[in-house]
Amino acid sequence: MKLFFNPASPFVRKVRMVAEERGIADQIELVKVTITPVSPDDSVSSSNPIGKIPSLQLDDGMSLFDSRVICDYLDSVGSADSLIPSGKSRWTDMRLQAIADAMCDAGILIRYEGFVRPEEYRWDEWSNNQWLKIVRSIDALEADADNLSQDVTVGNIALSCALAYLDFRYDDRSWRSGRDKLSIWFKTFSDRDSFRNTAP
Ligand SMILES: N[C@@H](CCC(=O)N[C@@H](CS)C(=O)NCC(=O)O)C(=O)O
Hints:
Elements: E1 2-5, H1 10-21, E2 29-32, H2 42-45, E3 55-57, E4 63-64, H3 67-76, H4 88-115, H5 124-143, H6 154-170, H7 180-189, H8 193-196
Parallel strand pairs: 1-2
Antiparallel strand pairs: 1-3, 3-4
Bound molecules: glutathione.
């Protein structure tokens, strides 16, 4: 398998953590690309019409995207325990992954607005409202933090990648402030090799 990746992408990190936790990271060849919406990479776009990373090319030539599909696929490879809970927990975990991914979407859009869009076209109100999506999400997670587990699931992996992305790109915005429970959850969950091995 070949994974088009960039170490700065939180979505890439999520799928790489899943591969590490499943013990199949060594089956994946990493191909580094640097892309933005206005500077696509042909090697990605030729097999993934959306042109985004992560994109996973299977050995039979089929390409899988986006990150949720890739995580589901990797969870089906090998014999390690599934990272996707069953029963009702499945939906709380997928919901968690949806919140985490949406935080990453908002964070990446702010980044594109601030660093890719020409300065004269930048729209602060738009970026500020993207940031509010992140604030509302981490506030909701803090309020519900007693229900967060330390289980190694795709949802928890996604959340750790989203919070790490906030540290990576928006350290100056201090997301931990007033969110003690979420901060402790993150400190504990991120103390694992799969997290360390996938750092930007
Ligand atoms: N929903 C996608 C989001 C992936 C995504 O936004 N990737 C960014 C890098 S972090 C990208 O490839 N951006 C290039 C573009 O938007 O054209 C997923 O879960 O894989």
